[in-house]
Each structure stands twice: as structure tokens, then as C-alpha cells.
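[User] I wish I could look at a protein chain and see how it folds. I have put the entry right below:
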Amino acid sequence: MISIGGSVMHNIALDLQKNGHLISGSDDEIYEPAKSRLAKAGLLPDQIGWVAERITTDLDAVILGMHARADNPELERAKELGIRIFSFPEFIYEHASNKTRIVVAGSHGKTTTTSMIMHAMKAAGMDFDYLVGGQIEGFDHMVRFSNAPIMVMEGDEYLSSAIDRRPKMLHYKPHFAIITGIAWDHMNVFPTYQNYKDQFGLFLDTIESGGKVYYFSGDEDLVEIAAGNQRKDIEVLPYSFLEDHLMNAMQVFGKHNQANLMAASLICEQIGILPQSFVESMANFSGTSKRLQKLYESEELKVFLDFAHAPSKLKATVEAVRSKYTDYKLIALYELHTYSSLNKEFLQQYKGSMDLADKALVYFNAHTLEMKKMPDLSPDFIRDAFQRPDLEVCQDNAALVHFIQEHKGNRHVFLFMTSGTFNGLPIFETLNLPKNS
């Protein structure tokens, strides 16, 4: 496994090992929690970096992670020896080719919606395999391989590998699928909105004959794509929101989760889980790691962590928390971490995304810009992009900690949003919270 330290890649390694396969791997950087999990399983590479001699004719296959470049010396050696090379979505399809395949695609809500389906299936006692982009309570790994008849997959639109430039979701050929919505992301590989949008039209072309696709009816682009579908052998059907009164029994909240629940319910009905059973099972669904995850709660203070990084995700998360805690002061903190979010042209997409927060801060790390070889950003430019003159902008953790401590007060909600870590910010210590909460 080249790039074994990746979020999905190391989970694939762990579950393949659990199934009795002999796994080895390499990477040039491995972070927590992958590092500790691989070490515990005896799969942590004994040497960091790429070593062509690791690739021998003893190998049955190489799985190539997205982090590895096209000129990777181990990859080149595998090609020379004629060893079969998979991107990880190719490998997933190879495993699931004889199963009923369920795929959740879209710019936002993929992990949460996939998790909802998995939670309901587990509650119903169903046997299934899965691939999901986050750690979920009650599931050991983010990937499961077995002889189960069904596989549930999160369909990411990002590229498969350095030598396979197709979006991952185009590999899976689902029988049942969801498209949650479209909002431009990954501009480093999809330079225009139209180019990004086109990928979801291509996704419809991959649906198995006789299959069903559910799309969110509140998304104009999805309505257009559905109207343009020329295939007569599949059904493309709209969905909206789970009924308002049913949300009272749920732990998750926000209009986006109301739509996610509706989509998950429709898919579950296709595999034999009736709507009433689905709703009952979802009453104890608490969400997924870093997806509007509640870190701390008291009467006076609530703290949430969310993976939001694209503009649509940021806006939906802020709106959800604002609507839930109308009589609390909302302090929203967002880290620019992805290539798109740090790009001056793309930053304009964030206009108005944090308007509903009482206080808002945007953080970015100069080292991240250096690593991505991108030009510096000025605080005034970021304020203009967000169209919020009172926006706090900071680049170092000392200023970040000062902002947090300065704004801590009674009946406050802190909402941390990032696909990174705020450069290792210790949230509990900064807010002086008990860790066992």
C-alpha cells in the first residue's frame, strides 16, 4: 500500500489484515491517529519515505493512495515488474463487484448520510460492508471487507490517484445512489464550476441498469442534471426533507441533516428497512466524528467541531447551530486549510457564509501556504471575501487562543470548523474544560 498513512488507506490496511491478508506499506509522512493504529497492528513502515526495493515479485497487488505522486519510485518499480496496481476506489469496486452497491455522492453531507444508512442497517441486524470517510461510533474501522451481500460507500468526487484522474465515485457503479447537492470544490483539479458539476452528470452514467438515484430537489443544478438524464433504464427521483415533527426525536439538527435523513430513509426502504423502523433507529444516532460533533455541553456553554471547509458546508453548519441555539451567542471559528479555501479566486465563494455568527474568526497558518506553494493572504482581503468587516483574522495560535479566551462567556456556543486541526489547538485546555466531559 503506497501512501498507507492516508485516512482511508490505513483503514483499508487494517481491515485487510484482519481478513488474513499480508499487508505492507509506505509513506513519506504519517500523522495521528493513523500512526498509532498502524503501529499497534504492526503495519507502521520501518522507514519513512519511498524505497523502490520494497516492491518485489512476491506482491500480488499494489494499492496506490492519492497522496503519492505519479513519479513515485515504488510506483515506477511496480510498473516495471508488471504488478497489478489499483487506486483504492478500484480496489473497493473489485471487492464489491458481486454485491448490491449503495453510494452516497454530493459536495456535502456524504459522510453523515452514509453513516445514517449504516446505523439503520446495523440496528436492523443486517450484514453489510462499507466505506465511509469518518470514524463512526460502533464501527471499528472506516472500511469493512467481508462476504456480506451489500456494500455502502461514500462516493467522493476527488481524483482516485495520480495515475487515475477519475473521481472516486465513478468507479463504484451503484444500484442505489444519493446525490446530496452540488457546490464547487477542489478547484485545483476542477478549475471551473461547470467542470466540477459535469462530474455528477458522469456519475449518473455509471448507475447499474435498473438502479435508482435520489437527488435533493432543492438544488437547482441537480434538478437540471436530472432533467437532462437520457437513460431510460434507471430512475432519477427527487427528495426533500424528513417531516418536521420527526426531527424532535433526533439528536442531530439543522435543515441539512433533515435532508440527509430523508435521503437515508429512502435508500433504507429500498433494502427492506421500513420508514418507521428507520426513524426509530435514528433516535440514538449522534452523528459522526467531526461532523457537527458535540465536544462539550453545559447549560452555559456548548462546543462543536465540524469538518466544514467548502463554502456551502460552512454556511449550512453555521445556520444549523444558529437555528438550534437562538438565545445563545454564537462564536464561529473557521480554518482555511484546503487548496481551494486558500486560493484568492475561490475565497470569493465564502461571501456571507458566516453572517449568522455573533462573532466570527478566520484562521490560517502561513506554513500551510508555504507547503502548498501559494501566495500570502492579507486579513483585509479575507474580510472582503467573506463580506464581513468585523471578521477577526489571525495567523498564529497565540492570537487564536487570545480570541477564544476573550470571548468565552455565559450562554455561548463555540463552533470550530476545519478540515485540519487549527495547528494542533488544544480546544479543551484553551476553554478550560474537563476532558472527560
Observations:
- The chain has 14 helices and 17 strands.
- The radius of gyration is 22 Å.
- The mean pLDDT is 93.
